[in-house]
Amino acid sequence: MEKPDDIIRTVWTEARRHLPFFYGTVLAQAESVSFDRDDITGLGIFVITFSSDHQVLAEECQRNVRWLNDALSRGAGELVGLDIVIPRKIHGRV
């Protein structure tokens, strides 16, 4: 089983190599990226978080979700869940 940092590094490397425009304009703008395991199922969960101002980037990420899921599964060596998060603004604040 790969370490979380190794999985993230593997996926980012694949993105830079195979989808450089997507990596440079979308993934590189993510506010945070994490990989963790669900305590109950043991399923790996890859979370990409964008700032509330980056709705368009998150939508572009959704358009590439199949590629991301494939890259994640290859990097982790197992089926991995993907969650794309955008905090909501409330009265101009996050």
Structure description:
The protein is of the alpha+beta class and 94 residues long. It contains four helices and three strands, in the order ααββααβ. It has a three-stranded mixed β-sheet with strand order 1-2-3, covered by helices on one side. A hairpin with a 6-residue loop joins strand 1 and strand 2. The model has no long low-confidence stretch (mean pLDDT 86).
Descriptive labels:
single chain, 94 residues, 4 helices, alpha+beta, 3-stranded mixed β-sheet, GMP Synthetase, Chain A, domain 3
Write a brief structural summary.
The chain is of the alpha+beta class. It has a single domain, classed as GMP Synthetase, Chain A, domain 3 (2-Layer Sandwich). The chain contains 4 helices and 3 strands; from the N terminus they run ααββααβ.
SSE topology:
Elements: H1 4-18, H2 20-25, E1 32-37, E2 44-49, H3 55-63, H4 65-76, E3 80-85
Parallel strand pairs: 2-3
Antiparallel strand pairs: 1-2
Helix pairs in contact: 1-4
